[in-house]
Amino acid sequence: MHPSLAVPELLFSVFRESVLGQKDLGRLSLVCSAWSDIANIFLWRSLNSLVPLLRLLPDDAWSISPGYGRHIEFTLERKLVAEDWSAFHKHTGLVRHLRLTFHDVLIQDQQHMIQCLPATTTVLPHLRTLVIIQAPYYDPQFDRLLADFVCLLTPTISSLTLRNIALWNDTDWRLVISHCPRLTEVTLFDRPVPDLGVGTDDSPFYTTLFDALVTCDHLARVSMDVSIPYSDELLRSLAACPGLEKLSFGLEADEDGFEDDGLPLHPAAIPYPGFAALRDLTCTRGTASLIQSIITCGRKRAMSSIDLLVGINTDEELSGVLSTVHAHCDHQALDKFSLDALRDTEMWPDEYEVIVTLSKTMLASLAAFRSLSVVVLQGIYSISFDVADWEDIAGWWPELKEFHLDMNTVPRCPLSALAPFAYHCPLLTALTLPIDASVVPGIEDGSVRSGDGRKGTPAPSLTLAVGASRVAHVVETARYIKLLFPNITSLISDGQPFRKARQERRAWQEVMQIIRATAHHVAQTIG
């Protein structure tokens, strides 16, 4: 062996920077003792299961059989004694990241193994990240399982991820969290698991968990992506959590406090200040009043993203949400604002009894957020804008990359409404405006202007969605759009049901074909 291959620093650098997989690292660990010590550092750093460690137990103590899906199932064949754990403990100190799935090992075996460990043993003394994932089935023993795994929760853990374990309502979360004094990040993901065969209310789980998280001195980031029934107690617990930075939630229907469509009637009052660390808010099912309660319990919120799918039934509700964002969010921080009114997707605008109308005055609430790069307003099928308003609107957001109105919005925007976006928004990559192309502006009237762009930066490719409306002059429309957006790569004319707009779609397809043919001719000429 070349002497350089025995230099620990060189081996450490090679093993760390290489693209070797677990099997290759395993083979390297068998070359010699010098290589083994270093290869094992990376071989055991991250584990997707406890099974690799459990295989270090004596061969006669365990067996493996096929389990759920692609997983294997580890089963004990005899009782364990203290001497069986020697090889196991030799490697546990190398583990930094563990993904724990409870269907890898039979629940009764997991409990038995933990009971066999010496009382003073710290199973994973240097663990940094722990991901706990519930099995895809329900078992009453889950209620006590996490308490049995407290020995895995070492003081060194800084990141804890919990996925689909809301059925553990009886867990003493204060005891669990107390074993992680250095905890800085918690991630929660919970969506209903089909065919569990049990009816549960997840609110007590989250309430007790967040009551425990309040006691974490170093907690800096909590991300939550859950679907839960509404609860006043849970809302207050969330608001009190000092590290809740990213909140993504959807409300489930419940019999108490909900309207017929499954949304809460009156959200709880949140003590001020609440949600102090909130930066990213996503709601996949909720109400305008609930969103306003969350945002208004703080001032100058440094929100970076607001993404809402909420019930908007009146102009006042729409105006209230937009004005609340304006009044309580930092105007320099917000990068994305998306609002989709909660509607029945099988209905079309002409079938709605109540139409919410978006006006320039309402939208002006977002004008102060000059750093916005994404603005989305879907599910709002009526607008009240003058032709001249588009010049102001496009000028509000110089960093704009995406702007989307619902393609079914009426009245449709004139073709000239595209020009301000071409001039004021050099970074634009996606634009959705319901266009009326019955009149094509003249090139000589000054409506086509060249934007100032970004020096040294080529204009990005653009996807333009226009809905399905009448095109009076296909060639002139194609020429006008191509002059505005030389880098257009896609033109979408969806929106109304196909049977209602077949001719209009065909016309817009011809517009895009002409644009592409023009671009191809220019490319050949330059070449």
UniProtKB/TrEMBL annotation:
Pfam families: F-box-like (PF12937). InterPro entries: F-box_dom, LRR_dom_sf. Residues 8-47 form the F-box domain. SUPFAM superfamilies: RNI-like. This is F-box domain-containing protein. It comes from Schizophyllum amplum.
